[in-house]
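During the reporting period the student researcher (J.K.) took over the structure-prediction task from the postdoctoral fellow and processed the backlog of single-chain submissions. One of the processed entries is reproduced below for the supervisory committee.
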Amino acid sequence: MEKEKIYIIGAGLSGLIAALELEKSGFSPIILESSDRIGGRMKTDEVDGFLLDHGFQVLNTAYPEAKKYLDFQALNLKTFDPGAVIFEGKDSYIITDPMRNPLKIVGMAFSKVGTFLDKVKMFTLTQELKKKSNEAIFKEPSLPTHQYLKDYGFSDQIINNFFKPFFRGIFLEKHLNTPSRMFEFIFKMFALGQAAVPEKGMGEIPAMIRRQLSTTQIYFNSPVEKVEGKTIHLRNGETLEADRIIIAVQPDKVMKQLQGQFAPAHQVTNLYFSLHKSFFARPMIGLLPGDQLVNNIVFMDDVSKAYSTNGRALLSVSVLESDMGEKDLIKAVQAELEAISGIKGEYFKFVKAYTIPYALPSLEDLRYSIPMTECKITDHVYLAGDYLLNGSINAAMTSGRTAAEAVVHSYMPTY
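J.K. obtained the following structure tokens:
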């Protein structure tokens, strides 16, 4: 089996999990990665004494696949306090545990965000979803999330003040058009688990998976131009002959016949600023309701001290839609930060910005899993990636495992 030439295109989470599962069955795959490092969308840079994740991301500790492949203790996970800091102009208030234990929320604080009935409905929804399997959630009829929330009976007050800014930051789209299956799944995961980051950044997650590989080779700076049959054409003109190929990137990039099959992905711009100290002083996400440019903010060193080793606080800012140039965007964000904090905009020192065009796939038909047969597109080519299921770390891992299982199954004798 080691002589079988199995190539995996892409060293993101899906590709790494596929390699790990292939190794367990005795194969020695080769990963072709276009960049100079693993991780795909999950990378962490070290800049001026800061750790900068490529986009604000968290790991939910309730994800079943994450529990299977990751050692949470070794990652030294640092958790967020459940809830959020809501900013309305110069006012701010905290809602605690809105999903984990809705009935324990302090009434006065919650009344600014929603009504007493909202609190009851939050509790009811939490209990309903905890009893429902993940597979069952993804078999439910789907509505746009904003319609689902209205139909469930939540007030406009809590939809606008909490659900919209919180889930916009997860779905990376402003109007909560994302199918309600995804909302139910994420809501359940937050009710069961905790949002966390590895102590030394999200890049530690793919690094941990890579350390579990022993016979896999990874060829960096090896962008694939196209796949034709069993032949892989590299951009440098080389060709590779394969027995099996797992495409763990969006396949229209390497299979021209699939172009036009995918909706434009959701984009996000993540800006980092440093400040003399955090004005949160707690590991919590800050939400800005309404039509502001900024959707959410987090002082990353409040969550994990390792994110800053230079004595200054590190602020992560997420912007969903903007056609501004970088300089104008920085000024506009600094102005919004000044408005909510009372700290002069110029004191927020710009560190770096990441614009991530493909941050999340845009999907209508969301699924929790797929049968092996559905990730096979020819006798030799298989697909892996969260776009096959739903936009989550859990889905990326599931799809990598499923593709590997399909490849292994293809070598089994049939009777």
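The committee noted the following: The domain at 6-40+203-262+363-410 is CATH 3.50.50.60 (FAD/NAD(P)-binding domain).
J.K. will present the remaining backlog at the next meeting.
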